[in-house]
Every structure is written in structure tokens, then in C-alpha cells.
Design brief:
Layout lengths: L2 H8 L5 H12 L1 H5 L7 E3 L8 E4 L3 E4 L6 E3 L2 H11 L2 H21 L6 H10 L2 H12 L5 H20 L7
Antiparallel strand pairs: 1-4, 2-3
Length: 169
């Protein structure tokens, strides 16, 4: 129900391919949010650089846990890479970073094949688009926040297009 207003407010800054993906996502939203039946973990839900506080020594603390959920861990990975990196940087390094994540899981005793890990990453790419649309539409229009939401929308929607997340709708 928020997608038409979102497109009206931000559509001039989105490519046609991104708008078409959004239209397809909205038409299949109910199926997408119920598609995952695999192992679950605690996920932040809004895992992006703005919700990380960095301190000396390379340590970081994650804040803003109000969208916490139980789902596939790749939801946070897809959201972080899809929105916190420029599109160009994500395209150059996402496969390597997703594989690094998979290896860290394996080191902790969680076994996931490289192919399955990549598929889950792709399948959860729309999570970023969904949160961006909801966040923007529940926030009053304001120049500063609209700039942030437009960048997030451009990145997350292009991420969905790039990894062909339409296959999972």
C-alpha cells in the first residue's frame, strides 16, 4: 500500500528497471515474506553503517535493535552490502564478502555450501527495499531524510536487479 506513494515521492531518482522490480515485489510481497523455511537466527533487521558505532582498535557496537527478527542470517548480510556500500563497490566485492561470511559460519560449525549461501543472499536482497520503502513512508518528507532514503532506495533496488532477486518473488 505504500509503494505508489513511494514512487510518487522518489521515482524520479530511480531507474525504470528498479521501479519495475519494485512493482513485481509488491505484487508478490506475501509470497516473498513467507518463502524462507530454513534454519533461522537472530537478525538485526536494519543492519547498516548508520547503526554501527566504531571505536579505537577496530571494535564496533551495533545499535538500534527495534527491527530485530528471527530469520536467515543472510538477510542482514544482503541488507548491509546492498545499502551500506556504493553500487560499484558492492558489485566488485560482494561475492568475495558473502564467501567470507560463509567461511566464518563454517568456522563456527554452521555448514552451508557456497551455492546455497549465494542463493540465500540473493533471495534476501529485497529485505532492504522493503525496509527503505516503509521507513521513508512513515517519515515526514524532509530534505535531509529524503536524500538518505533516495540513496538507500537506489542502492537496494539496484542490488535486487543486479542479483536477479526477481527469481525469488
Amino acid at each position: 500500500q505504500n509503494w505508489p506513494g513511494f514512487v510518487e515521492r522518489f521515482g524520479s531518482g530511480l531507474s525504470q528497471a528498479c521501479i519495475e522490480f519494485g512493482n513485481d515485489y509488491v505484487a508478490n510481497h506475501a509470497r516473498w515474506v513467507t518463502h524462507y523455511t530454513g534454519s533461522k537466527t537472530l537478525a538485526h533487521g536494519d543492519f547498516r553503517t548508520e547503526n554501527l558505532l566504531f571505536r579505537e582498535g577496530g571494535r564496533a557496537t551495533t545499535v538500534d535493535w527495534q527491527t530485530m527478527t528471527e530469520t536467515c542470517g543472510l538477510a542482514d548480510v544482503a541488507y548491509f552490502l546492498g545499502g551500506s556500500m556504493t553500487t560499484e563497490d558492492r558489485r566488485q566485492s560482494e561475492k568475495e564478502l558473502v564467501e567470507y561470511y560463509r567461511q566464518q559460519l563454517a568456522d563456527s560449525g554452521v555448514q552451508l555450501s557456497p551455492e546455497d549461501c549465494w542463493q540465500l543472499y540473493r533471495a534476501f536482497a529485497p529485505h532492504g527495499m522493503m525496509l527503505t520503502v516503509l521507513g521513508a513512508m512513515f517519515t515526514a518528507p524532509e530534505e535531509r531524510s529524503d536524500k538518505m532514503f533516495l540513496v538507500m532506495a537506489q542502492r537496494h533496488l539496484q542490488h535486487c536487479v543486479d542479483v536477479n532477486a526477481r527469481e525469488f518473488l
